[in-house]
User: Fold this.
Amino acid sequence: MTGFIEILREFVQGEIRGIYTVTFVRVEEINESTRRAVVSLKSDSDILVDNVPVASPFARSGAGMIVPVERGDEGLVLHAQEPLDKQIQERGEQPPDSERRFQLEDAVLLPMVWLDEDDVPDHEAGEFQLALPGDGSVFRMLPDGRVRIEHASGNAIAMAADGSVTIGAEDGASAVLNETAAIEYEDTQPDGSTSTKTATITDPGSEDLNAS
Assistant:
């Protein structure tokens, strides 16, 4: 009886080892036009899975969020209960075309894990941020209404919580007019005489105004 139990246990363990749920992987190749990747298992780089769809928080036909994925990036792969061959081709109900379950090749890549050795971008609590690697720009939205687009040069377009907008470096940003204003300037005549004149800017930012 003991021998039968051991055989049964080994059989069950063997079946469980063939069931894939979530696997840590490394990106080997990325096809930007199709948003499909070739990944290798982090536990065994000789095992490759190709044509893996890259998941996105928002994806529709002709619309969605594109996140940068490069060779060497690491993330998680979710293994679907049913085969993805037909289900990934088009929208709408697609009955499974196979009885296989939780197999290695039925995978979707989630490239969104920071490792312990990675530097997490500086951010505030509740902030939504898109920070591109290297010298890429940073887009930040905060719960109090502030919005910033920051460039590696130090320049930024910033909207404060009250809706006012500035453009430029932090220590010398220029305000963008958002209400009627009057500007005084010196007008020089052909004879060399000058006079102070006033220009009124109404409805700043409208299509009727070209301002710099």
Observations:
- Confidence is low (pLDDT under 50) at residues 208-212.
